[in-house]
Design brief:
The complex is a heterodimer of chains A (about 210) and B (about 140). Chain A is an all-alpha fold and about 210 residues long. Chain A contains six helices and no strands. The longest helix of chain A is centred in the last third of the chain and has 37 residues. By secondary structure, chain B is mostly helical. Chain B has seven helices and no strands. In chain B, helix 2 packs antiparallel against helix 3. Classes of the chains: A mainly alpha (about 210), B mainly alpha (about 140). Chains A and B meet through helix 1, helix 3 and helix 6 of A and helix 1, helix 2, helix 3 and helix 4 of B. Chain B: This is Quinol oxidase subunit 4. Chain B: It holds the Pfam family COX4_pro.
């Protein structure tokens, strides 16, 4: 390593430069702000979820099958993303890119089923303007979907950089930060799964 | 100390990730079963499934996101990380529970039913009563 700092040989590459360390710490602080952003959207949704006006009730249109497909795709992508970072720490660039590519594929699959579901809801007469409840639903779940879309582009760009420049303290910190972002999307989905879908179905059926 | 953990972790089989993954699947299916397959009361269902959600979020943070990991010899960065995330979680819970409580507890209705409106309601009486009569006009 061409760095003046001395490191324990076990220090992961992404922590070896000052910039890498600060960027990772800064990204954790950004994630704190993201939690606050999603909290406001969750609060809006939960306050409005019974204001269905003349439209269908939320739980009436939710389907377990579509929900489970989306959930498993995202959970698995979080797992493969973790494996990618694991491979990165073994300095296995090929393994890193392979697992990240699988992660992106699963992310794309998730988006496909989410869009299918949105189209199904719209077909059933529930779009973003149908009622306050559906507005809250589409804004919350749509914001999450937009984050996934952005994540797919971001990870792709970082992977291109890794392929071109190899694993350096700079590129490995970028990979690590995108992995934090991806896991965070899974954390948000867990709460959408619980607070939106499960709660919607329970209150509608019970 | 944390470096040791990292060292153990990035050689060999990624057990931590596999265990995290299996547990997240199990928690998801269990939450689904509690919600749709049991006859528990709504309150209990909500307590259990939200408990599982927070458990699963903690799992992601610890097993996948290495939240406790630090790079420097002092533990400062990892403390800042953990402190920041816990604070954010606290803010999130206050925003969600606070909003739901304020918007559904019906404080205005309570005041009116007792026919003893508080002084702050007097000051914007025009707007307040208009809003109230929309919700339960039978009183007026």
């Amino acid at each position: 390593m061409a760095h003046a700092e001395t490191h324990d040989p076990n220090t992961p590459l992404e922590y070896r430069s000052e910039t890498g360390r600060l960027n990772i710490l800064g990204f954790w602080i950004f994630l704190g702000a993201e939690i606050a952003l999603f909290a406001t959207l969750f609060a809006t949704y939960m306050v409005l979820s019974h204001r269905i006006a003349d439209g269908p009730a939320l739980g009436e249109l939710f389907e377990v099958k579509s929900l489970l497909i989306q959930t498993f795709l995202l959970l698995t992508s979080s797992f493969t993303c973790g494996l990618a970072v694991h491979e990165m720490r073994r300095h296995n660039v090929k393994g890193l890119i392979t697992w990240m590519a699988i992660t992106l594929g699963l992310g794309l699959g998730f988006l496909y089923f989410e869009i299918q579901e949105f189209l199904h809801f719209i077909h059933e007469g529930a779009n973003i303007g149908t009622s306050a409840a559906w507005s809250g639903f589409f804004v919350l779940v749509g914001t999450h979907g937009a984050h996934v879309t952005f994540g797919i582009f971001w990870v792709t760009m970082v992977l291109i950089q890794v392929a071109k420049r190899g694993l350096t303290p700079a590129t490995s910190a970028k990979v690590f930060i995108t992995s934090l972002y991806w896991h965070f999307l899974d954390v948000v989905w867990i709460f959408i799964f619980t607070a939106v879908y499960l709660m919607g179905m329970v209150t509608h059926n019970g | 100390m944390a470096n040791k953990t990292v060292a153990n972790e990035h050689h060999g089989f990624p057990w931590k990730h596999l265990i995290g993954f299996v547990l997240s699947i199990v928690l998801t299916l269990f939450a689904l079963w509690i919600a749709l397959g049991t006859d528990l009361s709504l309150t209990w269902i909500l307590i259990i499934i939200f408990g599982f959600a927070f458990l699963q979020a903690a799992l992601q943070l610890l097993m996948f996101m290495h939240v406790t990991e630090n790079s420097t010899k002092s533990n400062l960065t990892s403390r800042v990380q953990i402190g920041n995330i816990l604070f954010a979680a606290f803010v999130a819970i206050v925003i969600v529970i606070g909003s739901v409580w304020v918007m559904t507890a019906g404080h205005a209705k309570h005041d009116k039913d007792q026919h003893a409106p508080k002084t702050e309601n007097h000051e914007n009486h025009g707007g307040g009563s208009e809003h109230d009569s929309g919700e339960h006009g039978s009183h007026e």
